[in-house]
Design brief:
By secondary structure, this protein is α+β, with helices and mostly antiparallel strands. It contains 10 helices and 14 strands. A hairpin with a 2-residue loop joins strand 1 and strand 2. It is elongated and about 75 Å long. Bound molecules: 2-acetamido-2-deoxy-beta-D-glucopyranose (5 copies). One 2-acetamido-2-deoxy-beta-D-glucopyranose binds next to strand 3 and strand 4. One 2-acetamido-2-deoxy-beta-D-glucopyranose binds next to helix 2. Pfam families: GUB_WAK_bind (PF13947), WAK_assoc (PF14380).
Length: about 325
C-alpha cells in the first residue's frame, strides 16, 4: 500500500497539469500572451484573464427550452431529471477571455497571431442598435505603446456639445473615414442614434448635435468629460466598411501588438513554451512541469542546469525513499 502511495504521489508530482494553459473559451493562447502567471512575455503580464463568470439570466439562448417557473410548480419529491435543468438555469456560467486595462475588462473576441491583432468588445459601449452612457476607454502607458488600437479602428464621439474641443480647437482630430460615411449616417441609419436627430428636430428645429470620427489618440489625451460628448462607439476594419451600412459595421476595437524579440523561437523549436520567472521577469523556456531552462529544452547549450539538477535530485530521493520504506516493511 505504502509503495503504491509513493508511486502515485511521484506520478502526480511529475505529470501534473501543463504549466501554461494554451486556450481559453476556444481562443488559442500563445506567445506573447499568457493566462497563467509566468507564461508568455513578461511585458504582456496580467493583460489577459481567463475567467468564469456566473451571470444572471442575460442570454436567452441557453434558456429557450427550459421554463424557469416549471420546476417550482412541480412537487418537492421531483425526480432528478427535473432537478438537473433547474441547476443549469439558476447558475449559467461562461468562461471568457478578458483584456484588462485601467478602465476595465474587455471581452476578447479573437486573437489573430498571423496579423498580430486582438479584437475586443466592450459590452457597455453604444453601437448602432444600443445606446449606453459612455465610460472612458483607457490603456496603460505600456499598453498604449505595446498593443494600441490598430489604425483601422475608428471611434465615433456622439452628441458632442458645441463647446467640445473636437468642434473647436481640436477640429482637425475629426475625419470622415471614407468619402461616403459622415456622422449623419450614424444619426440617420442607427436605431440607437436616431434619438439625437429626433430630439433636436422636435425641440429646437436645429441641426443634430455634432459627432466626430476620430482615432484612439484623441481619447488617450482627452477623457470623455473633456471631450464633452455623451456617447461613443467604435468599430474596426474600416477599409472593409466603405459600402456597408452602419448596422453592418464591426463594432469593437482591434488592437495591434508588437512582439518583442526575446529569443522565444529558439525555445519553441526545442519543444518548449516561452515564459518568464515571476520574480525576476527573466525569460524562461518551460520544457515540462518540472523543468525550466533559460533558453531551450533538450540538447544544446542549456543554461538552466539548476532546474534539471533539482528534478534529478527529486527523482533520486523518491527512489531512495521507496527503497527504504520497502526495506523497513519487508524486514
Ligand atoms: C517554471 O516556470 C513557470 C513559470 O514561471 C513556473 O510556474 C514553474 O513553477 C517553474 N517550474 C519549475 C520546476 O521551476
Ligand atoms: C479577471 O477578470 C475578472 C472579471 O473581469 C475580475 O473580477 C478578476 O479580478 C480578474 N482577475 C485577475 C487575476 O485580474
Ligand atoms: C412557462 O410556465 C408558465 C406557467 O406554468 C406558462 O404560463 C408558460 O406558458 C410557460 N412557458 C413556456 C415557454 O412553456
Ligand atoms: C446630448 O447631449 C446633451 C448635452 O450636450 C444632453 O443634455 C442630452 O441629454 C444628450 N442627449 C442624450 C439623448 O443623451
Ligand atoms: C465629411 O462629410 C461631410 C458630409 O458629407 C462633409 O460635410 C464634410 O465636409 C466632410 N469632412 C471632411 C473633413 O471631409
Amino acid at each position: 500500500m505504502s509503495l503504491i502511495f509513493f508511486l502515485v504521489l511521484f506520478f502526480f508530482h511529475s505529470h501534473s497539469l501543463p504549466v501554461c494553459r494554451n486556450s481559453c473559451a476556444n481562443i488559442e493562447i500563445d506567445y506573447p500572451f499568457g493566462i497563467d502567471d509566468g507564461c508568455g512575455a513578461p511585458l504582456f503580464r496580467n493583460m489577459l484573464n481567463c475567467s468564469t463568470t456566473f451571470t444572471p439570466l442575460t442570454t436567452p439562448t441557453t434558456t429557450t427550452t427550459t421554463n424557469t417557473t416549471a420546476p417550482v410548480l412541480t412537487p418537492t419529491f421531483a425526480s432528478p431529471t427535473i432537478a438537473s435543468p433547474t441547476t443549469t438555469v439558476t447558475t449559467p456560467s461562461a468562461t471568457a477571455l478578458f483584456f484588462q486595462t485601467p478602465s476595465g475588462s474587455y471581452k476578447v473576441e479573437s486573437i489573430d497571431y498571423a496579423s498580430k491583432t486582438v479584437t475586443i468588445y466592450d459590452p457597455s459601449m453604444s453601437t448602432c442598435t444600443i445606446l449606453q452612457p459612455h465610460h472612458d476607454f483607457l490603456l496603460s502607458d505600456l499598453q498604449s505603446a505595446l498593443i494600441p488600437p490598430s489604425p483601422d479602428t475608428v471611434f465615433a464621439l456622439v452628441n458632442c456639445s458645441i463647446d467640445s474641443p473636437v468642434l473647436n480647437h481640436y477640429k482637425s482630430l475629426c475625419f470622415n473615414f471614407s468619402s461616403d460615411h459622415s456622422c449623419d449616417d450614424l444619426y440617420n441609419s442607427c436605431t440607437s442614434f436616431k434619438i439625437f436627430n429626433l430630439f433636436y428636430f422636435l425641440l429646437s428645429n436645429d441641426t443634430p448635435p455634432a459627432c466626430c470620427f476620430t482615432s484612439y489618440a484623441t481619447l488617450k489625451f482627452m477623457s470623455m468629460n473633456i471631450l464633452d460628448c455623451t456617447h461613443y462607439t467604435s468599430f474596426y476594419d474600416v477599409d472593409k466598411l466603405k459600402d456597408e451600412k452602419p448596422l453592418d459595421w464591426s463594432y469593437g476595437m482591434k488592437l495591434s501588438y508588437s512582439l518583442p524579440d526575446t529569443g522565444c523561437d529558439r525555445c519553441r523549436r526545442s519543444g518548449g513554451t516561452c515564459g518568464f520567472d515571476v520574480e525576476t521577469e527573466g525569460m524562461l523556456c518551460i520544457c515540462s512541469p518540472t523543468l525550466n531552462s533559460t533558453r531551450q529544452c533538450g540538447d544544446g547549450p542549456v543554461a538552466g542546469k539548476a532546474g534539471e539538477g533539482l528534478v534529478f535530485l527529486h527523482l533520486s530521493l523518491t527512489i531512495v525513499f521507496v527503497y527504504v520504506y520497502v526495506f523497513i516493511f519487508m524486514s
